TrEMBL record:
This is TonB-dependent receptor. It holds the Pfam family TonB_dep_Rec_b-barrel. It is found in: Cell outer membrane. The keyword Transmembrane applies. It is a multi-pass membrane protein. Signal peptide: none annotated. Belongs to the TonB-dependent receptor family. The keyword Membrane applies. InterPro entries: Beta-barrel_TonB, Beta-barrel_TonB_sf, Plug_dom, Plug_dom_sf, TonB-dep_rcpt-like. It comes from the Bacteria. Keywords: Cell outer membrane, Ion transport, Iron, Iron transport, Membrane, Receptor, Signal, TonB box, Transmembrane, Transmembrane beta strand, Transport. Its main location: membrane. It comes from Gluconobacter frateurii NRIC 0228.
């Protein structure tokens, strides 16, 4: 049986020294063709996915073993995908599901050669399908709930003469009206891949992904707003000249281009070289609006009196479009390595270089008569000062340089039954920031140089049984937000304080596991332990009515638990699957507020459900197929003080399909995907955390006021999607 048949493509036999889960195209092809890899990984052990809409057009969030998505590295064809400045991950911009060959999730730590600097919570790697050796095409169309529709075309060149090259290019368009509130999301997407196979076993690849999307934000409500309004807790649908929460003022355009060119060069049976040059570019806007008093308009700390509405006075209150924009991110890089086999040892030495230039600005521009912005990107028609300077409350440029050297040795003994891997990576990260706001420090910088050794071993007892263990160190430098103050557009006061001396997060992780890979049953159990210092916790804060990601230094943290995963190869066409996790994650330090401390030591870490479990079943006889997956996620705290939490929940998805006999050289297929069967109304994840949600007594006796109101993702409603596909 093919490996991808295990658990319907939810499992692949593993032989490494680290915990690792993998899904294949056999599983992906039966899911709803929505552009969000988080949803595809949601049933794997340790993965806790917060959905925010039925079909995955909204990124939502994902944690692995309690580590947020901005602490997980993501790559496609060897190119890094996390934002280099904030480490945020935007899965809806990456790869269409039809074009994914497999997705691997390494829960504990990144690999020695992984081009990531913030992945203290593991790594997710994606590869596109290889172009076919035969010329052909795939055409698909989908239609479903809320008038959602999608069109998809993929063209295969087949082998191009005797060149050894072949290629594919795929295009899709998706439109998804909102399931709650006004607005709709839409996007166009292109994936392409060119492969050249050389006669000596070398291989050259060029892969491209381009995404152009427009999304209307969903409001992430507080717990009290959710309890009062349910799914109605959202941006307003009727325009008012003073309502900054009108939905048209929260439309966010984004464009992303990712190029990667992995080159695998075989010199002989002992020596080889790998080079992966890549280029990442994006441009986009997080939309927002502010109500400003014309006689007190601020840029940084500078106060201005400006006639914003052009009526000849400066005494009005005027609503302005004030988005947080990223005009550009330019990010070229190169991962290069040489590997040499010497007896039982395979040595690898490599270098990773990454350079980025990221521009961010929060300008002021007019709101149109219909309530929408004059320009959704926010860069045109900006308010100018008398000297021609653009008025803004956030205006900076960040340059980040990464230089990483790594060396490793893989040792095989006992006829390859024993495998030992050891390595060390030295990473040097420099950030330079230029703040163009009045009153702000013009130039700031931060530097970090961190060594991260790792050691792992796997012993194959027999053809079915393995044990493995690894110890790894990880680090995460502070985000670019630490370089800059942010200011209120209405008061000029500091909204968030710069902290360029913020310490780098460092962690040590250990895993001990057992795998059974038999003729029918595959399974694994992994015990894990993490120790963090200067744990950086991602949260959402509202600045000028935009939901912006910031980070909190939460001190030390200890996380330990166990992951279980089991699946069957086909048994009477059935392939069951099960995964589960127990997690005990605790805060090690009290949290400082002013001159006192909140008593947070020993409390449960945020976004860390103690129990989650998934059960799935796949049936496929070659003509008819069907499946379901049920996921339970326990309660999750949203404050360091554990004085607020979101309840646990259950979600169920189903799929049904039919592959028709060959008709005129075509292979038709139709399938139905059902999401959130039962229409369970629940909060799916923690968006914004806080140290405390109500007043508490500090350890020195003072009364410490509430430090914020956590916010939450609202899960998508029940939805159905029918997809018809033909292969030519």
């Amino acid at each position: 049986m093919a490996a991808e048949a295990v658990a319907g493509g939810r499992m692949v036999p593993q032989n490494g020294t680290k915990s690792r889960s993998e899904i294949t195209q056999a599983y992906i092809a039966k899911q709803a063709p929505t552009p969000n890899v988080f949803k595809l990984l949601g049933n794997l052990p340790g993965a806790n996915v917060a959905s925010a809409d039925p079909f995955g057009m909204v990124s939502g969030n994902m944690t692995i073993r309690g580590m947020n998505s901005d602490q997980i590295g993501f790559t496609v064809e060897g190119a890094p995908l996390n934002d280099i400045g904030s480490y945020m991950a935007f899965p809806t911009e990456w790869v269409d599901s039809e074009n994914l060959n497999e997705v691997t999730m390494q829960q504990g730590s990144a690999n020695l050669d992984s081009p990531v600097i913030g992945a203290s919570g593991g790594i997710v790697s994606m590869n596109l399908i290889d172009p076919s050796h035969k010329m052909g095409a795939t055409i698909a169309g989908s239609f479903g709930s809320y008038n959602t529709h999608r069109e998809y075309v993929r063209l295969q060149s087949g082998d191009i003469g005797n060149t050894g090259m072949r290629a594919f290019v795929a295009w899709s368009h998706l439109e998804e009206p909102h399931f709650r509130g006004a607005g709709d999301d839409h996007k166009q997407h292109i994936d392409a891949k060119l492969v050249k196979d050389w006669t000596n076993g070398s291989r050259s690849t060029v892969a491209l992904t381009f995404d152009d999307s427009m999304k209307v934000a969903y409001l992430n409500p507080t717990l009290s707003a959710w309890q009062q309004y349910g799914r109605g807790a959202n941006y307003t649908e009727a325009f008012s000249p003073t309502d900054t929460k009108y939905w048209k003022l929260h439309q966010s355009p984004y464009r992303v281009l990712i190029l990667s060119a992995p080159q695998n060069i075989v010199v002989n049976d002992k020596l080889g070289f790998d080079f992966t040059p890549y280029f990442y570019w994006n441009s986009g806007t997080i939309a927002s609006a502010s109500l400003l008093s014309e006689n007190a308009v601020y840029s940084g700390t500078q106060k201005y009196s400006i006639d914003l509405n052009g009526n000849g006075t400066t005494t009005d209150k005027v609503m302005m479009y004030t988005p947080f924009g990223t005009p550009y991110v330019y990010r070229p890089g190169l991962v290069s390595k040489v590997h040499y086999t010497m007896g039982r040892h395979t040595l690898v030495f490599g270098y990773w270089f990454d350079w980025s230039r990221e521009r961010m600005v929060n300008p002021y521009s007019a709101v149109g008569e219909n309530g929408g912005p004059a320009n959704v990107w926010g860069y045109l028609g900006n308010v100018k000062l008398s000297d021609g300077t653009r008025l803004a409350s956030y205006d900076n440029l960040t340059i980040t340089r990464v230089n990483t050297l790594f060396f490793g040795d893989t040792f095989n003994a006992l006829h390859n039954r024993l495998r030992v891997e050891a390595g060390i990576k030295e990473s040097m990260v420099t950030r330079i920031g230029y703040n163009y706001l009045p009153g702000a420090q013009y130039r700031t910088s931060m530097n970090a140089a961190v060594a991260t050794p790792n050691l792992g071993a796997r012993y194959r007892i027999d053809s079915h049984n393995q044990i493995f263990a690894d110890v790894a160190t990880n680090f995460r430098t502070p985000t670019l937000n630490a370089l800059y103050n942010t200011y209120s557009a209405t008061t000029g006061k500091v909204a968030t304080q710069a902290n360029p001396s913020q310490k780098t997060e460092y962690s040590i992780s250990e895993e001990l596991g057992y795998r059974y890979q038999g003729d029918i049953l595959n399974g694994s159990i992994t015990f894990f332990n993490y120790n963090f210092t200067n744990r950086q916790v991602s949260t959402q804060v509202t600045i000028n009515n935009a939901q912006i990601t910031q980070n909190i230094n939460a001190g030390g943290q200890t996380s330990r638990g166990v992951d279980i995963e089991m699946g069957l190869r086909p048994w009477h066409h059935f392939r069951p699957y099960m995964s589960a996790e127990y997690l005990h994650a605790t805060i090690d330090n009290n949290y400082q507020v002013g001159s006192d401390y909140l008593p947070t030591a020993g409390k449960t870490a945020v976004r860390s459900p103690s129990v989650q479990a998934s059960v799935g079943l796949d049936y496929d006889d070659g003509t008819y197929f069907a499946g379901f997956a049920v996921k339970y996620v326990g309660r999750q705290f949203s404050t360091f003080m554990n004085d607020q939490a979101m309840p646990g929940y259950v979600n169920a998805d189903m799929n049904f399909g039919y592959r028709a006999p060959k008709i005129f050289h075509t292979h038709p297929e139709i399938r139905l995907n059902l999401m959130n069967v039962g229409n369970n109304k629940y909060l799916s994840g923690v968006a914004g955390v806080a140290a405390s949600s109500r007043a508490a007594q500090g350890i020195y006796g003072s009364t410490i006021a509430a430090q914020g109101s956590p916010t939450y993702y609202v899960a998508g409603s029940f939805a159905a999607l029918v997809t018809a596909k033909i292969d030519l």
